[in-house]
Write a structure and sequence with these properties.
6 helices, Cathepsin D, subunit A, domain 1, 2 domains
Length: 271
């Protein structure tokens, strides 16, 4: 079988993108589009390992290093071993599924150094099956998480700001998808009661200060004062760099309105 470099790259690029997206769904770390493309591109380039005459041990080391590089490029270095481990596990599972399908359909393929190359027609079939499997897996993850949503709507939230901790009564609003526009980080809202407990105002922290634009029902546009937190802990969820906006009003029995991000974290986010 003749191996075409462009097809080899494209096959591994598309598979790598699907695996990175699924890893993000499982871990809750969703890469930006630029990082997703970069990680998938490195997956595509890693396919050329098939041409290298490497001994078994060195080949394994290079493939593991490639897995770390792809995960780091897509998700950064935060919890790198976790994201890489899940990414590699999904890679092994997908490789096993491909081999099983090839044997079942008796399709020709080339396998070397842990890389599988198949012709374009066969690959198109596998891509359709893989996309369907990705959709089913994503649906299953969402189903499991939805079973726990009602239990995780209310509770105490711990805000860590400038190394100090502050606790408030919080409620997760599934309609709050507000994000800081520059970083894409989720935004939570603190009302006037909660803000009164803080020993500072937003203007007291110029290095953390942001203007948070928003749209709401009956309001075309508006803005809120906000600051960047070190970390927010709500139940089993921990997210760094979340922004807190100061809401001009009260939330009744609660002081903080959480972002829906705290309901939609990855299935394995806290493993």
């Amino acid at each position: 079988m003749v191996i075409y470099g462009e097809y080899l790259f494209l096959e591994n690029f598309i598979v790598g993108m699907l695996l990175i997206m699924l890893t993000g769904k499982l871990t809750g770390y969703r890469p930006r589009m630029s990082r997703l493309i970069l990680g998938a591109g490195l997956c595509g380039l890693s396919g050329f390992i098939i041409f290298l005459p490497l001994p078994g041990a060195l080949s394994a080391v290079i493939r593991i290093a490639a897995g770390f590089l792809c995960a780091a490029s897509a998700f950064g270095f935060k919890e790198l071993f976790k994201t890489t481990g899940i990414f590699m596990a999904l890679t092994f599972l997908s490789g096993g599924a491909v081999l099983a399908l090839l044997l079942w359909q008796q399709q020709p393929a080339v396998s070397h150094q842990g890389i599988i190359y198949i012709d374009v027609i066969t690959y198109f079939k596998l891509l359709c099956v893989g996309t369907l499997a990705f959709g089913i897996t994503y649906w299953f993850v969402k189903l499991i998480r939805s079973r726990n949503m009602d239990m995780n709507m209310k509770g105490k939230v711990c805000l860590i700001i400038d190394g100090k901790s502050y606790q408030f009564r919080a409620f997760v609003d599934s309609g709050n998808s507000l994000r800081e526009p520059m970083t894409g980080k989720p935004v939570i809202l603190i009302d006037e009661k909660g803000a009164a407990k803080l020993p500072f105002a937003a203007s007291d922290m110029p290095a953390r200060y942001r203007i948070i634009p928003y749209k709401a029902v009956g309001t075309d546009s508006g803005s809120l004062d906000g600051i960047r937190t070190d970390r927010i802990i709500f139940g089993n969820h921990q997210i760094e760099g979340v922004y807190m906006a100061f809401y001009r009003g009260t939330f009744g029995d609660f002081e903080v309105l959480m972002n829906k991000e705290f309901l939609e974290g990855g299935l394995l986010q806290n493993v």
